[in-house]
Amino acid sequence: MEILSSGHEQVVFCSDAESGLRAVIAVHSTALGPALGGTRFYPYASEEAAVADALRLSAAMSYKNSLAGLDLGGGKAVIIGDPATDKTEALLRAYGRFVEALGGRYLTACDVGTYNADLDVVARETRFAHGRSEAYGGCGDSSVLTAYGVFLGMQAAAQHCWGSRSLAGRTVAVAGAGKVGSHLIGHLVDDGADVVVTDVDPAAVERVQGATRR
Length: 214
Description:
Elements: E1 10-16, E2 21-29, E3 35-36, E4 39-42, H1 47-67, E5 73-80, H2 83-86, H3 89-101, E6 106-107, H4 116-122, H5 143-162, E7 171-175, H6 179-190, E8 194-198, H7 202-212
Parallel strand pairs: 3-5, 3-6, 4-5, 7-8
Antiparallel strand pairs: 1-2, 2-5
Helix pairs in contact: 3-4, 5-6, 6-7
C-alpha cells in the first residue's frame, strides 16, 4: 500500500474487537480547514481495497471543497463490512469514538451505506458528526441536493453541447441506483430522458423502476 507517497496528512486504521469495527479514516488536507467527507460502509474485498478507496475519495474531497469555495479540507472514512448485516449501534459508536479522538481534524457525514439515523448514533460519541436527522438539528437527507446538483450539471452540459438544457429524447446511463442515483433518475425521467440503470444490487434497480413507472 503506497500510503506514504499518497500525499495524505494522516491515515488512521480503526479497530474495535468488541463491536467488530474495522475502519480507515483518511485525512488528505487541512490546508483550508477541517477535513470534511462522508463515511462509506461497504463490504470491501480486502483491507488494501478499503485503504485505496479512502485515499482516493479523501483526495477528491479536498478538490471538491476547494472548488466550492468552502473553508474545509478533504477527508473520507470507510468502514469495512456489509451494512445490511454488520451495522450495529455498538460498531457505530466505536467508530464515533475514533472520529472524536481526531479532535476535529476530520468531520464526517453520510455516504454509501450510511444514513442520517446512523450519524445520529455516531454523534453520541463525537461532536464532529454531521449529516444528522432534522429531528436532531441536522440537514436531513443531503442526497436530494446532491442529485439535483448533478442533474443541473447535466442540463448545463446539454446546453453547451446541443443548445438546449432539456434532456428529452436523450439516452442517459446511470451507474448506481442508491440514495443519489434514485433521485437523479427521477429528475431525468421527469425531463423526458430515456434512462438506462445499472447497480450491483438488482433490488435497487427494481425499486427505481417501480418508483418511475408511469
